[in-house]
Design brief:
single chain; 12 helices; two-stranded antiparallel ribbon; 7-stranded mixed sheet; about 10% strand
């Protein structure tokens, strides 16, 4: 029989208390009741990495948050629907800006990010919407940067909120105060109409380019690339509806947003487009990215910030990083507003609010942008998610061991899949992960 010294026993006890929430992970145990509870929609709220020491709750106990950091304090407004997660390593912890690991679980060049994988799996299950996956974000390739979205190659986003609105809502029939109508077969006529809408948008932008200078032309080229995203997805799904028929959309058409050159304010408008697209059931999977991995112009007079996120906030301002804290608080407020708007919007079928059936996941391109590593990836999960998430009154906090192959951050991405009713993980992420290491984290699901 092995005998432990008092010191060894104390250390063992301390470690077991610290990592108690992860015991079920390391054993590969499955949460009771996780299957059968699923979300109808997924929204990825994507930003660059941050400063871990300023993000972490200063005080947490028994899986709950006692004290919020100055950076995340605005999230306390929705704490009962919230889970903060950190301490999960990437499979390639040395990878930096622009690597696909954040949403793909792997650094391979031909990676597929999780929103694309989920969209494909939903289509295979017969869940088909007019736009299978909607990617939005202003200037997400600024500074020669990349987005977090991949499908064998890096994907662009729709940069202009007005272009996004037209791509989503042009051709939507307005029926008055009601939301989506009952399902009906899709037709080739609908597909051709949506193709014409995309073609018209591209034609309008090409005409406008002729009147602008070089800098404005470059921005419009990004718009054209992002519109091409929807065009490609329409072609991939055969009839433009997800491969064989979907529910035509008929709802109250929202008001078009204005053009907005301020990147942060444009993304706030993009969130409105996503909210309305969910309300009209035009898409089940959407994502927004704030800035690129190399740059995001920040011009927020209300909080006294005018700089670039990458050089001016992530890599400047030590040791207090006051500017980064201010930006992160602003991002938290946008996250909270999104949750609150979904909560205030009823489902068309009377089954609660949009929030009740939506999972919102705040994902990042790396864990620590200040020192450039993916050793300590972090997430914020929120929403009703169809009852999938195991939340806690006052907020839930989970910290992983930080260096365990059994606690890779890819497993949270698998939770996103499972929450959306996708349980086939063989085509996603790191192919080298097998067994219990290739399963969702049991402690996240109810």
């Amino acid at each position: 029989m092995v005998k432990l010294s008092r010191r060894q026993l104390t250390m063992s006890t301390t470690a077991s208390l610290l990592f108690a929430p992860f015991i079920s992970i390391l054993r590969g145990e499955k949460a009771v009741g996780a299957t059968g509870k699923k979300s109808k929609r997924l929204l990825l709220f994507c930003t660059m990495g941050t400063n871990p020491t300023m993000w972490t709750p200063p005080s947490a106990s028994d899986g709950g948050i006692d004290t919020w950091s100055a950076m995340t304090e605005p999230l306390a407004k929705i704490k009962d629907n919230l889970i903060l997660i950190e301490g999960l390593p990437s499979g390639n912890p040395g990878n930096g800006h622009g690597a696909p690991d954040g949403l793909a679980g792997t650094g391979y060049g031909n990676a597929t990010s999780v929103e694309q994988y989920i969209s494909d799996q939903l289509i295979a299950q017969g869940i088909k919407r007019p736009i299978p996956v909607l990617l939005l974000g202003a200037e997400t390739t600024a500074g020669g940067g990349r987005t977090m979205f991949n499908r064998g190659q890096n994907l662009t986003t729709i940069s202009s909120p007005l272009a996004a609105f037209k791509a989503v809502f042009d051709g939507v029939a307005t029926t008055g105060p009601t939301m989506p109508t009952a399902p009906a077969p899709a037709t080739d006529k609908m597909f051709k109409r949506r193709q014409r809408i995309v073609t018209q948008l591209k034609s309008e932008i090409a005409t406008l380019k002729q009147t602008l200078g070089a800098q404005e032309k470059a921005k419009l080229d990004l718009h054209l690339d992002s519109i091409h995203q929807i065009e490609e997805r329409l072609l991939q799904t055969g009839d433009g509806t997800g491969g064989g028929g979907s529910t035509p959309v008929s709802c109250t058409k929202p008001t078009a947003p204005p053009e907005e050159s301020n990147v942060c304010k444009a993304n706030a408008l993009h969130l409105e487009v996503i909210h309305n697209a969910f309300a009209c059931d035009i898409t089940r999977v959407a994502a927004i990215q704030f800035g690129s991995d190399q740059s995001m112009p920040v011009d927020l007079p209300d909080i006294g910030l005018k700089t670039d996120q990458h050089g001016g906030l992530l890599h400047s301002g030590a040791p207090e990083f006051k500017g980064l804290i201010a930006l992160e608080r602003w991002l938290c407020e946008r996250f909270v507003q999104t949750v609150q708007k979904l909560k205030a919007t009823p489902e068309a079928d009377g089954s609660g609010s949009l929030l009740d059936n939506t999972l919102i996941a705040w994902c990042r391109d790396m864990g620590d942008s200040v020192t450039h590593n993916m050793q300590n990836m972090r997430f914020v999960l929120a929403g009703g998610a169809g009852g999938y998430l195991r939340t806690k009154p006052g907020g839930r906090y989970i910290k992983g061991p930080g260096d365990s192959a059994a606690a890779r951050h890819e497993r949270v991405l698998l939770n996103l899949c499972e929450a959306m009713g996708v349980t086939n993980f063989s085509g996603f992420g790191d192919k080298a992960l097998t067994g219990a290491n290739k399963t969702p984290l049991a402690i996240l699901s109810a």
